[in-house]
Amino acid sequence: MQAFLVAQANIPFSIALAIVVILGMFEIIAMIAGLSVFSALDNWFSFDVDTDVDATVSVTGMTGILGWLCLNRLPLLIWFVLALSSFAIAGYVINFGYSQLFGSFLPQIITVPVALVIMFFSSHFIGNGIANILPKNETSAISIDALGGCVGKITQGRAIKGMPTEAVVRDTFGQKHYVLVEPEHDDVEFLPGVDVVLIAHQGKVWTATRFS
Fold first, then answer.
1. Pairing mode, if any, of strands 195-202 and 176-183?
2. Closest Cα to residue 200, out of 148, 157, 150?
3. Number of neighbours of residue 128 by Cβ within 10 angstroms
4. What residues are paired with 180 via a beta bridge?
5. What digits encode the pLDDT tens for the residues 109-158?
6. Strands 151-154 and 176-183, bridge-based pairing
7. Residue 77 in 3-state DSSP?
């Protein structure tokens, strides 16, 4: 077993598994001391993404990617452990099965991309399952209507009437939300870096006006 884990073909997966084990050990030690490594790191590296995304809206950029990967539904370090564990297990299973059939390992140029694809799907499906059973923290939760009047910044793309793009908005608690915005009038366009004020929304698309 040890020879299998340290085989050259399994080095990326062994590194991923080692990181998971180290994080777990630090968490146990921190809990004994009355702290939490996971909570502390999650506060430092948090992704605040608006979780209420309408399935009928074409979501772009960070909103779509982070939402599909469940980064907006799980504490970052829990997601990180899930992703690393999925990557390591997928790689080990692929190499073990191939070695049993053919007596050798697949090259990393094949196993690593395949394991990454499995990791992404695991993050989505298993992440959704974990998020559904985790306790929800609603101490600073606000409804989407409460974002009206908030100032946001266009993050990417070009927004015109009928073709929204992504903007990042901070609510009254200082949390970031990624929303879709479009100009209020047909002859206006928003480019990346432009500050806008959210006026009203239909579904998850906000009409906005330039902030000045």
1. unpaired
2. 148
3. 13
4. 166, 205
5. 999 999 999 999 999 899 888 877 876 544 445 667 778 888 989 987 78
6. unpaired
7. helix
Reading the block at residue 180, the tokens are 């879709």
Query: What gap in Å lies between CA 24 and CA 6, rounded to an integer?
Result: 21
Q: Residue 168, Cβ neighbours under 10 Å: how many? A: 17
Give the tokens for residue 147: 């974002």
CA 169 to chain centre: 17
Identify the helix (H) or strand (E) that includes residue 13.
Answer: helix 11-32
Which ranges of 33-170 does DSSP label H, i.e. alpha helix? Answer: 37-44, 61-68, 76-102, 108-133
Query: 């469940």: which residue's tokens?
Result: 70
Grouping H, G, I as helix, E, B as strand and the rest as coil, residue 105 is coil
Length of the chain: 212
- Give the separation between CA 27 and CA 15, rounded to whole angstroms: 18
Return phi, psi of residue 74, to 5°.
Answer: -120, 150
Count CB neighbours of 59 within 10 A: 21
Rounded to two decimals, what is the model's pTM?
0.57
Whose tokens are 């085989």? That residue is 7
The tens digit of pLDDT for each residue in 3-24 reads 888 889 999 999 999 999 988 8
What letter would DSSP give residue 6?
Answer: T
